[in-house]
Every structure is written in C-alpha cells, then in structure tokens.
C-alpha cells in the first residue's frame, strides 16, 4: 500500500514537473502586447497615440485614448465603447488585425473610451474606490454621463460637428440607455451608431453567468459579502497567470469561451491573440452593474436597474431620430443572440429610428467579433463600409 502511494506520488510529481517545464518554455512565445497598455500598443506600431483625461458631470475621472495615422491631421472622429468589464485594450487585442487599427488605417480619428470603474478610470474628484458610493453605478450611468462627456470633449478637439459611435456588447445597452434618458446630451452630435454583438436584450441568451447569477442571486450574495467591485483587473492574475496559461493551453481557454460566450470559438477566434485578450480582460466593473445585467436576463428587454419594487424598460422613442444605426451579430453568439438582435432592430424601427444595416455572421460569436481569425475579417470590412457611408456627407466646421 505504501509503495503504491509513493508510486502515485511520483507520477503526480513528474506530471507537475512536465507542466511547469512546458509552461515555462511557452513564455518565450508570449506576445509583448500582454504587458502593454492601449497607448503603448498603438505607439509601438507607429500610430500617433495620445492619452487624455476627462471629468464627468458627476465627478468620475476617465481615461480616453486616441490613435490615428501619423499623416492624418483632420480625420473623421469615431468613439469606440467597450462592453461589460472591458476596456479600450479590447479593441486592439487582435494585433494588427484589430478593429482600432483597421479604422485608423481607413482614415479615421479613433478615440477609445474607458468607463468608470475599469483599470484606466478608477479615480474620482471626491470619492475613493474603497467607498461604496464610488461603485454605485451600472451601464446606465456610463451612458448618461461617461459617453456624453467623452463626446463633448472629442468634439472640442476636432474640426467636425458630429462623431460616430461604435459599441460592443453591453456598450450598446449603455448607449441606448443614455439616449433614452438624456437624449439632449446626444442630439445633434452623433453621425451614426454601430453595434457589434449588442447585449441590449438577452432573453434568448445562453450566457451561463447570467443564468447562474439569476438562480442563486449571485449579485446580491456578492454585495452582502461587502464587495462593491467585481472582476477587477490584476497584473499578476491577468498579465502573468492567465495570459501565460492561455498561451500554453489555448484550447482550454477556448473551451471556457465556448462555455460563456461563443458556441464555436475553436474555428473562429484568432488563437494567437487570445492570451493577449486574457491579459487585459476583465478590466473591472461594479457589483451593481453585475446585478443590472442579471436583471436584464430575469425581466427581459432593456430594463432600468430596480431594487424589486417596479420594473421599467427604457423607452427608445426618446432617442434622437436623425441617428442611423447598424447592427452586426454572430450566429454563434451565446450572450447577444441573433433573435435578440432582430428584436433590437425591430424595436428601433417601431419607435421611429433608422436601422440602415443589419448583418449576421455564420461562424462568429461574442468574443469572435472582436478577435476574428484572419479568414473571418469580413465583419470589420462591413463596419468600415458603413462608417464610410456615414462619413460621405459629414460636415466640417
């Protein structure tokens, strides 16, 4: 018996040693973007890259990045807005094939927003991140305060009267919530809005985190434990541990994405850049926003945050009617389904808004629309075509 236990112990020790050696050898193949921030990733590729700081109406201090070709001095501006617990990094994580660089190469002045509470936007004029009041926000506040502040700041720096918006995932819910509650902050300033995988209604979602959270009241449990923030970014966990393991065992992490977001990640993702994405995601968010996301799943449609007394949906009829929309969705998306994207299209049209472009992509999912393999790049080509369409008649001051 003792001999058998010792033999089993040696096998485990050898297996662990092989794991450590293999993982260590893969360190030489880690992409250096893992250790770069948004500004550095753009700068190293030769783009004109800037970092700006803005203060919102309610005191949050946000980081806003800008990239463009060195030769472009007066390009049409476009603002990129990340999804749940994301950051500006996510629009550059696909290396040279990233949508941020593709837009810059197409002649656009690319600005990248960071919502309150993520790794780049942790400051406030009066509140500290250790205070519960600091984390009293959801995607709604980002749509009501963060994006309008970024839009106003950008328009004060460029010679264009309007700006285009591109939002991924919950960034779309953020924009629609802001436009519904505070249409005056957007009216006359937006040339057009492009949605990638819009998580505005997740009624048909297979998003297991929302399903699990709904069943066990996960958000309330986390809040009861005294935690105000969720999925905070950590240099050690994200940029050292997760990126290293993902680089060594990409199939394992693709399986995780299959479980959470994409039903076909193995053939659609850019496998070489997945560990870069894991180094930068998640970037941090509030527990209250997690609860709001779960409420979307529970109550259906784009609902306002509630403490349980009343359930109220955002009214799209308040959205300014001169803004054309485009919607792009992957058929393998487990978070924002094609059915819910079609609902969004019909709901916008029914309330007097204009949807100029709607397209589904056969083998792409939620993460896949940000990290498509080279043979899946049609999604970015379509997006740029729509941006060019919007820009044809854009007035210059």
Q: How much of the polypeptide forms β-strand, as a percent range?
A: 15-25%
Through-space gap between termini = 85 Å
Spans of at least 5 consecutive residues with low confidence: 393-397
Helix content: 40-55%
Task: Tag the structure with descriptive keywords.
nine-stranded mixed β-sheet, 397 residues, globular, alpha/beta, 14 helices
Characterization of the model:
The protein is of the alpha/beta class. The protein contains 14 helices and 11 strands. The strands form 2 sheets. Strands 1, 2, 3, 4, 5, 6, 7, 10 and 11 form a 9-stranded mixed beta sheet that branches. The chain has a two-stranded antiparallel ribbon with strand order 8-9. The protein is globular and about 70 Å long. The relative contact order is 0.14. The model is unreliable at 393-397 (pLDDT under 50).
Which helices and strands occur, and which strands form pairs?
Elements: H1 2-25, H2 38-44, E1 48-55, E2 60-68, E3 77-81, H3 99-105, E4 109-113, E5 123-124, H4 139-157, E6 163-168, H5 170-181, E7 190-196, H6 208-216, H7 218-224, E8 229-230, H8 235-248, H9 250-260, H10 265-268, H11 274-280, E9 285-286, H12 287-299, E10 324-330, H13 338-350, E11 354-361, H14 378-391
Parallel strand pairs: 3-4, 3-6, 6-7, 7-10, 10-11
Antiparallel strand pairs: 1-2, 2-4, 2-5, 8-9
């Amino acid at each position: 018996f003792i001999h058998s236990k010792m033999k089993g112990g040696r096998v485990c020790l050898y297996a662990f040693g092989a794991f450590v050696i293999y993982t260590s050898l893969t360190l030489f193949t880690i992409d250096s973007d893992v250790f770069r921030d948004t500004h550095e990733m753009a700068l190293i590729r030769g783009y004109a890259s800037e970092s700006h700081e803005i203060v919102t109406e309610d005191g949050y201090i946000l980081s806003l990045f800008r990239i463009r070709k060195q030769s472009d001095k007066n390009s049409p501006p476009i603002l990129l807005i990340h999804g749940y617990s994301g950051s500006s990094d996510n629009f550059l994580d696909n290396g040279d094939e990233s949508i941020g660089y593709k837009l810059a190469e197409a002649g656009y002045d690319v600005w990248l927003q960071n919502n309150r509470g993520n790794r780049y936007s942790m400051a406030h004029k009066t509140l500290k991140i250790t205070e519960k009041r600091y984390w009293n926000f959801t995607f709604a506040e980002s749509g009501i305060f963060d994006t309008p502040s970024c839009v106003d700041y950008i328009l004060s720096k460029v010679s264009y009267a309007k700006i285009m918006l591109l939002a991924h995932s919950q960034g779309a819910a953020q924009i629609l919530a802001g436009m519904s509650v505070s249409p005056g902050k957007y009216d006359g300033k937006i040339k057009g809005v492009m949605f990638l995988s819009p998580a505005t209604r997740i009624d048909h979602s297979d998003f297991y985190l929302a399903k699990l959270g709904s069943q066990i009241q996960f958000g309330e449990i986390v809040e009861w434990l005294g935690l105000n923030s969720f999925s905070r970014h950590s240099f050690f966990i994200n940029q050292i541990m997760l990126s290293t393991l993902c680089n060594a065992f990409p199939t394992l992490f693709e399986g995780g994405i299959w479980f959470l977001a994409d039903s076909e990640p193995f053939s659609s993702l850019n496998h070489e850049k997945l560990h870069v994405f894991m180094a930068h995601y998640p970037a941090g968010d509030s527990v209250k926003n997690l609860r709001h996301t779960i409420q979307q799943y529970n109550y259906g449609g784009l609902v306002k945050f509630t403490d349980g007394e009343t359930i109220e949906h955002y009214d799209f009829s308040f959205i300014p009617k001169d803004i054309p929309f485009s919607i792009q969705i992957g058929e393998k998306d487990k978070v924002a389904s094609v059915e819910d994207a079609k609902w969004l299209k019909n709901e916008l049209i029914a309330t007097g808004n204009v949807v100029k472009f709607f397209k589904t992509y056969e083998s792409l999912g939620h993460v896949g629309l940000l990290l498509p393999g080279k043979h899946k790049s049609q999604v970015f080509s379509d997006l740029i075509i729509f941006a060019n369409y919007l820009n044809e008649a854009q007035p210059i001051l």
